[in-house]
Amino acid sequence: MPEVMEYAWGTPSWVELESPDGEESKRFYAELFGWGSYVLTNDRLGDYDIFTLDGPDGPEVAGMSQLADPFEAASWMFFFQTHDLETALKRALAAGGHVMLPGVDVGDLGRMGTVQDPEGLEFGLWQPYRHQGAALVDEPGALSWIELSTGDLEAAGRFYLHALDWTFASLARDDLGDRLVWAADDAPVASAVAGAGPPRWIPYFAVADCDAAAERAVAAGASTLAPPADLPSGRACAIVDPHGAHLTLVARPG
Known about the structure:
By secondary structure, the chain is α+β, with helices and mostly antiparallel strands. The chain has two domains: about 10-130, 2,3-Dihydroxybiphenyl 1,2-Dioxygenase, domain 1, CATH 3.10.180.10; about 145-250, 2,3-Dihydroxybiphenyl 1,2-Dioxygenase, domain 1 (Roll). It contains four helices and 16 strands. The strands form two sheets. The chain has an eight-stranded mixed beta sheet.
């Protein structure tokens, strides 16, 4: 499996699960994707779980932080790559966001900050030192795509366009409604759809067989939002994990 050595500016380079029950989340994702894990300890940020493929020494594919409220629903947060964190935070603030965490060094791994968008949805910015981000993408068990579900597609389109220095790649209508696609450095990086309920970032994780992965997910405690179906991007299934985090399983064609 080819490893990612570097991410372009504006690219989602890391995905983090925020869970109210870390041990149960480890069990679920081990059964679904075969993820292992290890704990990274930082003096300022505390313990942080790293998910890996093929055992604890395998490639790093995601992180997990523990929610303080055990009754809060799980969710995903993305970190977008930047070469200059302070400038990126200023850009997000000027676009209408709210800086939640100013720049802080995470040991020799990198420098991070977090921002809340105008709808109250949080995302992160990552300036790498030693840690570039996820070691794998578009491989079974690794992140393949990200999508924003938002109550105001037009406003979200403008905000992220300026906050992350993205460009519009396309705006299309399909059976699910309007879908906006953003690009960074001329490459598509994320999409957005108008959705009911609170805004959320939704990760698409690659799987070898969507139907089999959907069956594993349900057996491990997930709920199905949309059963496996053939889409232009591949065969996909939308699920909610046992603690409320939304995700999509996708098997790419070919």
